[in-house]
Specification:
α4 runs antiparallel to α5. The strands form five sheets. Strands 8-5-12 form a three-stranded antiparallel beta sheet, with no helix packed on it. A three-stranded antiparallel beta sheet has the order 9-10-11, with no helix packed on it. The chain has a two-stranded antiparallel ribbon with strand order 1-2. The radius of gyration is 20 Å and the shape is elongated. It is built from six helices and twelve strands. The protein is of the alpha+beta class.
Length: about 190
């Protein structure tokens, strides 16, 4: 394992994933016979990558900057984060832009435990929903605070996913609302 001083020098004393400069600690990415698998992470990143089921999506928008690092270890963690949140449009968009060589990709994919806790958003029929999908409302729904009813059969285009797999967001009658997935079906 690299010393903390080596990691601080390499990273300019910043978290190599989110660029925070407080509470930094070394982190070793699991993998056999791999060099440069040590990263310097802040406590927030360290806690979340150590326990992927506790990852908070809003923290990881910072990956848009660190994904361009030339360090394979940073690329591995950036790919894992983007893949974990791939159902959200921001991560899917970044993943499409991201280039990672075959060996580094194999390393990134080598930890299935990182992805075990991925919860998918599904419609009333069990079809997997992703950001950008079109859905149809299957029941008349009173929209609180907007003084209208979202009628059964209304098409909602280009939905967004939320951190709760039972909720999606979309525009109905020009108003952005949250819909329960049990009342929608994929178009």
């Amino acid at each position: 394992m690299a010393s903390i001083n080596e990691l601080k020098e390499r990273s300019s004393s910043q978290c190599e994933l989110c660029a925070s400069d407080t509470n930094l600690s070394p982190f070793e990415i699991p993998g056999d016979n791999i060099s440069d698998k040590d990263l310097l992470l802040c406590n927030t990143c360290l806690e979340q990558v150590s326990n992927p089921s506790s990852m908070v999506e809003s923290h990881w928008h910072c990956i848009k900057d660190s994904m361009w690092s030339p360090l394979p270890g940073v690329q591995v963690m950036a790919w894992r984060v983007m893949k974990k949140f791939n159902s959200s449009s921001w991560a899917a968009d970044l993943l499409e832009l991201f280039y990672i060589d075959e060996d580094t990709l194999a390393w990134a994919q080598s930890d299935p435990a990182f992805f075990e806790e991925i919860i998918t958003t599904k419609d009333c029929n069990g079809a997997k929903l992703k950001a950008g999908d079109n859905i149809t409302i299957i029941k008349d729904l009173d929209v609180k605070g907007a003084n209208f009813t979202a009628k059964r059969g209304t098409a909602v285009r280009n939905i967004s996913l939320t951190s709760n797999p039972e909720h999606i967001e979309g525009k109905v009658n020009g108003t952005r609302i949250v819909l329960l997935t049990c009342y929608v079906k994929k178009s």
